[in-house]
Amino acid sequence: MDELVIRQPDDFHIHLRDDDMLPMSVGHVSAQFRRAIVMPNLRPPVVSTLIATEYRKRILAAIPSGRMFTPLMTLYLTDRTTPADILLAKESGIIHGVKYYPAGATTNSDSGVTDLEGRFKVLEAMMKHGVPLLLHGEVTNKEVDIFDREKVFLELVLSGVVKEFPDLKIVLEHITTSDSVDFVDSCSDKVAATITAHHLLLNRGDLFDGGVRPHHYCLPILKRERHRLALIRAAVSGSPKYFLGTDSAPHERHTKEASCGCAGVYTAHAALECYAAAFDSVGAMNKLEDFASTFGARFYELPLNTGQIKLVRKEQKIPPEYGYSGGAIVPFRAGQNLDWSVEA
Questions:
Q1: Residues with catalytic roles
Q2: Which of 49, 178, 271, 325 is the most buried (most CB within 10 A)?
């Protein structure tokens, strides 16, 4: 297969950041995706509907002229979030989920939840009002090996939440292990998962290929090859429980190439092409449309997009960096060639 026309896709997990970085990230995502679930871990975080409304206005102002793009906003769950906050979010019509970060788990997660059981009244309100819970699924216990934190989270945290709130819609974001695939498969259709392009294409060996590769460092961290293969199988399985969420996360070059580099991989510049490479690697391009354009929209109870986008087997070279007024971003596959391109 050398070309594929699919329904215009949605990105159900992305970091757009703010200020000087926002026009670049919005420009990239809006070139391919019709909608995107926008993560709330700004500094300060998006903890209220009012803050989300103002952030949404800045995103809309950054959309290049002539493009149709809708940001789907989320709230940041904290120890201070109340059931009243959830009702207000639901009534706003712009909030499509509440994001749970364990405190200290990843970038800008300092305000995250320290005790999820203490938020059960909030989860009950979310279940009542039909607001999905979006999870960064890792424990932060220092005694748990970083490569095991997702697996332990399933055992110690998520299994209890699913049992306690059977009608709560849950998205386990950016899954990285066969354990997560097994867990999601075992749950009802209320539980789904997003999978990133970089977790489909890389394993933990790529993090140390010829030296430490800071631009491959992400959280949850890359895992063994057997886990990558399990993610591939889930993505191409045709199960509506799995759909596209890039977790594209822009960071300035100097914050990645540092003595304590931050976590995140920037894929928004060529996200669909990267997914195409993963699906093409196992001869499953015919499964890409549902994964990218159908399953996520249906889970979030959104209408399917009516536009189309065309992928062609045409080599493109990724630039070494993308500059913007505040600095430069090193993108995924910087300086390398991709086999697929989106036709303008």
A1: 247
A2: 271
**Which pLDDT does position 113 carry in this prediction?**
86
Do residues 156 and 111 lie in contact, with contact meaning Cβ atoms separated by under 8 Å? Answer: no
Place of tokens 């926008």: 38
Q: What is the pLDDT of residue 114?
A: 85
First to last CA, the chain: 19
d(CA 264, CA 136): 13
Beta bridge partners of 35: 10, 70
Q: Which residues contact 208 (CB under 8 A, 6 or more apart)?
A: none
Q: What share of the chain has pLDDT > 70, as a percent?
A: 98
* Residues 295 and 240 sit within 8 Å (Cβ to Cβ): yes
332 closest CA partner among 172, 201, 242: 201
Query: What's the CA gap between 135 and 175, in Å, rounded?
Result: 10
Residue 229: which H helix or E strand, with range? helix 225-235
DSSP 8-state symbol, 336:
-
Q: How far apart are CA 247 and CA 221, in angstroms?
A: 13
Q: What are phi and psi of 93, to 5 degrees?
A: 80, -5
Copy the structure tokens of residue 148.
């095991």
| 331, two tokens | 């993108």
Confidence (pLDDT) at 110: 64
Q: What is the pLDDT of residue 112?
A: 77
Please check whether residue 111 is in contact with residue 76, taking contact to mean a CB–CB distance below 8 angstroms. Answer: yes
Q: Are strands 337-338 and 308-312 parallel, antiparallel or unpaired?
A: unpaired
pTM exceeds 0.85 for this model: yes
How many other C-beta atoms lie within 10 A of the C-beta of residue 320? Answer: 12
For the residues 12-35, what does the mean pLDDT come to?
98
